[in-house]
Amino acid sequence: MSRYFIYTLIFIFCACTPDYLPKPKGYNRIELPPFAYQQTPDSLPYAFEYSQHAKLLDDTTWISERYWVDIYYPEMEANIQITYKPVLSLDSLLKGYYSDAYKLTFQHNVKAYAIDEKIIELPNGNFASVTDLEGEVPTQFQFHVSDSVDHFLRGALYFETATQNDSLQPVIDYIKTDILHMLQSLEWN
User: Does the model's pTM come out above 0.70?
Assistant: First the structure.
């Protein structure tokens, strides 16, 4: 009986050598909804179309101002913070707003390995500055636009998750498309 037991053990140990192959790194499966848009309320000094998959919320930052809003994507844990300032036909105010917008964007150059700014012309005749930030930065996309006389609008995309930006890239691209549509549909009230 001991001979049978020894042969069984040898057979089990020889038969159970695993051919282990490491699995490739996986990413979360992200299912993105189709693009669909709705209009902002008339109570704002600006109007644009934003995603039907997002909620328009009042801004909750400690320096919240009247026309500041958040466009919140609950399923993606993403937020576009929109800030608005009246220009009042004062060049000094406009210069200050542009300066603040650039400072806020370029504060991220410590962690960003690329900052790509583009100027796009909008159907309303205004020009918008859109900036892609690459790397492990808190905001991956920012923009600002003004009519140079009455209105200045700035926005930044943030995520409420600690997921690496390379894993979030499909969501970032999806929301960037929404932001570009928002800018294309922008009108001043």
Answer: yes
